[in-house]
């Protein structure tokens, strides 16, 4: 999550008002695509995800995000309880910690925004625990339609494995100043092509609720999610 930096030029538009709380990083939201906005305040997010087919395979996430002048940092932790078929070496869970930064590349007052995100991840149960992710993020705001488009393009590198392409597009529609619908399609791995739909509800700029439903494009791997974000400062 993050607050969009230049809200004054679009202050009359519902999307610009809700744009203060658009999803920014995959680690600070259950959404997988990053938005180019930079946080203006500190945020604390708690999230939950669960596959429809296996109620035991639950994922819990927490993340903190803060602004450092013209850029932001985030620190996140994820705990995943594995399904029976995915368990190995007597371990029924996996943990991951992530530290990341986001730098704005285009800070004009026009409809275009862009940013660069860099994340380091530590996989606690892995023999080669460190991985890296670099993303270029581009966004375009259609204020007259209360519509926002953004895309991600980058790569993921884990140990000596070949880099994996990360790509996706998203659309966000804000019918009012405190509600937003988001749809995204993304590729996180060679065989992982998926989509996600989410509803976000902002309460007095202090609290946001998000509910999501995702699925694989080639199969039936539905996943439900919910998270809550608190804003400080």
Please, could you describe this protein's structure?
Helix content is 2%, strand content 58%. The model is unreliable at 1-28 (pLDDT under 50). The chain contains one helix and twelve strands, in the order αββββββββββββ. It has a twelve-stranded antiparallel barrel. The chain is mainly beta.
Any low-confidence stretches, pLDDT <50, length ≥5? 1-28
DSSP, total strands: 12
Report the sheet with the most strands, covering strand number, pairing sense and barrel closure: 12 strands, antiparallel, barrel
- How much of the polypeptide forms β-strand, as a percent range? over 45%
The string of secondary-structure elements, in order, is: HEEEEEEEEEEEE
Q: Give average pLDDT, whole number.
A: 82
Q: Give the helix proportion (percent range).
A: under 10%
| Distance between the amino and carboxyl termini | 15 Å
Question: What is the fold's blueprint, element by element?
Answer:
Blueprint: H1 14-18, E1 42-51, E2 59-67, E3 72-81, E4 93-106, E5 112-123, E6 130-142, E7 147-158, E8 164-176, E9 179-189, E10 192-203, E11 207-216, E12 223-232
Antiparallel strand pairs: 1-2, 1-12, 2-3, 3-4, 4-5, 5-6, 6-7, 7-8, 8-9, 9-10, 10-11, 11-12
Short description:
This protein is mostly beta strands. The protein is built from 1 helix and 12 strands, in the order αββββββββββββ.
